[in-house]
Amino acid sequence: MRTLLLDAHAEPEAALELAAAILRGGGTVAFPTETVYGLGALGLDPAALERIFVAKGRPHSDPLILHIADAAWLRDLAREVTPTAERLTAAFWPGPLTVVLPKQAHVPDAATAGLPSVAVRMPRHPVALSLLRRVGAPLAAPSANLFTRPSPTTAAHVLEDLEGRIDAVLDAGPTEVGVESTVVDLRGPTPVLLRPGGVPRQALERVLGESLLDRADAPEGDPLPSPGLLERHYSPRAEVCLYSGAPEAVAAAVKQSMAQLENTQRAAVLAYTEDLPLLQSISARVVLLGPRSYPETAAQALFAALRELDAHGTQVIYASTVPGEGLAEALNDRLRRAAGGRITLV
Length: 346
Ligand code: TXA
Ligand code: MG
Description:
5-stranded parallel sheet; binds threonylcarbamoyladenylate; alpha/beta; 11-stranded mixed sheet; binds magnesium ion
């Protein structure tokens, strides 16, 4: 299959019309959202959904998010829209929030991995919204990467993984947020944070007036609660060594670990701007994620940095978590997954 590259900036009308026609015909089109690029297909059509799983090499046990152009479409997908769902979607849609609710009977098992619930979000990227309106139906759209690879934040990343495996990619430049949407399960009495993401926990809690439960503290739900939360996810090919601690202690630990390496040419450090003076004596490649005190920038840069280091044949990547609120939680979560769940406290 030849993958068409459609330029949503130069020729928005033609690109969007062609993309919508491919999707209406049951094909696959990667498109930009404000978080990451998604691989779209008709969300209520099992044959179209199957093409997503095949293209990504994604296991069928991993449920998809259905994307909508208008909050009014939610009622056609969710059997019950709780008052909490009303409040959160009114506050954060369009935007990087995904809500999990009981599904309507006609939502296919292929979209929900056989779960009785469905995940829905209304993205805020104008290209995504325009595409959804033209198609006129919900689109399933997981991140447009090969299964377990870092999510794509540019059309070039999409092609790196999926060229020849999907019908088209709509290019509208790099995405704004850089990490995926926040996923909350709204079926129980207290909302459960299934995946930290583009909407910070504190922003949700301010609107709710109560704390979100964490997945570990939630009462037993579905047998397969949220399989996309596999530990080894978002992984680069390199081994990621993740540290948590004061910047000076992290720098010392990185230097000590690097002293054991046979070839520091194949090592790299993901660093925050403030920490540069601490890393001066290091011979490895240093990739800047932005200021430690502004995790939004680091979140935007992270997946591209992991892909760039893979392209250089990097074997070991040193990184550290950041303290704080806002996007720090999502950033730390993606770093932890890239590290296969292992964090060294220093
Ligand atoms: O920002 C995003 O959410 C991006 C863009 C493209 O919209 N999409 C995305 O999709 O990240 P994906 O497939 O990579 O992640 C979807 C995750 C699943 O892996 C799972 O953790 C959760 O959403 N999910 C989906 N349906 C669910 C359900 N019924 N119950 C619980 N979790 C669900
Ligand atoms: Mg994904």
